[in-house]
Design a protein that fits this description.
By secondary structure, the chain is α+β, with helices and mostly antiparallel strands. The chain has a single domain (about 5-305), classed as Metallo-beta-lactamase, Chain A. The chain contains 7 helices and 19 strands. The chain has helices at about 5-20, 35-40, 115-120, 135, 155-160, 225-240, 260-275; strands at about 45-50, 55-60, 65, 70-75, 80-85, 90-95, 100-105, 125-130, 145-150, 165-170, 175, 180-185, 195-200, 205-210, 215-220, 245, 280, 290-295, 300. Helix 6 packs antiparallel against helix 7 (about 260-275). The protein is globular and about 55 Å long.
Length: about 300
């Protein structure tokens, strides 16, 4: 089994775990929520069903586009959530400003993704990735140019060896100005070396991919890096009133919140100090043969994560 197939299997295992008692616990919703806040903090109703060996979240939001590879639903006039059919409902986001737009992540296998995005927005748009794994970078060749964190270049060579699109590199703190709103790149390594979160200060939310696990974190880095990334993102969220993060496998009830980041920090500290010992698992995916659980989540890791 090659590395791409192994990661694919790991993502499916993650999804199964998230539907077996490891549901994240979002913060209590505030009154008078906007449509985005309803979809994020409060969560939207969804049905999770199995399809073609994977999982698909059917969110209770208006349908904007659907084919055999992806479904996009409309949160409001400037935000669409795409649920891919390939690996554990891998999630894409299309965000519009007054002048331009962003497509965050490209799913697993969506050959017509450019045509789909073109049908949802008439504005010019960039394609940016939260990280390079096959369920988030699998359709990059639908586009001429894709932006990634340079630290994930090794993953790009391994997992997208035949890619043809131009690769541009995101800088820490880079601002993507869409006109009337902008997203800032915050590097949050741990899941992968180049994992990146995109923060929208004007709207009070962000997009974190798999940086904080979606309820089941595959930690390919170490706990010290994870702790630092969580603290960095938490500080940013508190300072800029970011209330939640849409993640890379969004099922309607599992946004990342400041509370989740605090809990990830506490578990990381406990593991690093030796106060908490992970449970050994057999045949752990991609070498992640230990599991530690927290409040509504778990972290899969290997011994190297203790360094």
């Amino acid at each position: 089994m090659n590395k791409t197939s192994i990661i694919a299997a790991a993502v499916l295992a993650m999804a199964a775990s998230c539907t077996n008692g490891l549901k994240p616990q979002p913060e209590a919703p505030a009154p008078q929520l906007t449509e985005v806040e309803k979809a994020g903090i409060a969560g939207c109703d969804s049905i999770v069903r199995f399809e073609r060996g994977g999982m698909l979240a059917e969110l209770s939001l208006p349908l904007a586009y659907a084919d055999s590879n992806v479904v996009f639903r409309k949160v409001n006039d400037d935000l669409y959530i795409g649920s891919g059919h390939g690996m554990a409902s891998e999630t894409l986001y299309l965000i519009e400003g007054a002048d331009s737009a962003l497509l965050i992540d490209t799913g697993t296998s969506i050959p017509e993704l450019k045509q789909v995005a073109d049908s949802l927005t008439d504005k010019p748009y960039k394609v940016i990735l939260t990280h390079v794994h096959p369920d988030h970078a699998g359709s990059i060749d639908a586009f001429d140019e894709v932006w990634i964190n340079e630290a994930d270049t090794t993953n790009l060579r391994i997992m997208c060896p035949d890619r043809k699109c131009k690769i541009s590199y995101i800088k820490e703190g880079q601002i993507f100005n869409l006109g009337g709103r902008s997203l800032e790149a915050v590097f949050t390594p741990g899941h992968t070396p180049g994992s990146t979160t995109f923060m929208d200060k004007s709207h009070g939310y962000g997009f974190s991919g798999d940086s904080f696990g979606n309820g089941n974190l595959l930690l390919t880095g170490n706990f010290s890096t994870l702790k630092a990334s969580c603290q960095k993102a938490l500080d940013y969220m508190v300072a800029n009133n970011i209330r939640f993060l849409f993640n890379g496998h969004y099922f309607g009830s599992n946004p990342e919140t400041p509370q989740r980041l605090e809990n990830l920090i506490r578990v990381s500290e406990a593991v690093l100090s030796g106060k908490t010992l992970g449970t050994q698992v057999q045949d752990g995916m991609i070498g992640l043969n230990k599991v530690v659980t927290g409040d509504g989540f778990r972290i899969c890791y290997s011994d190297k994560a203790l360094n």
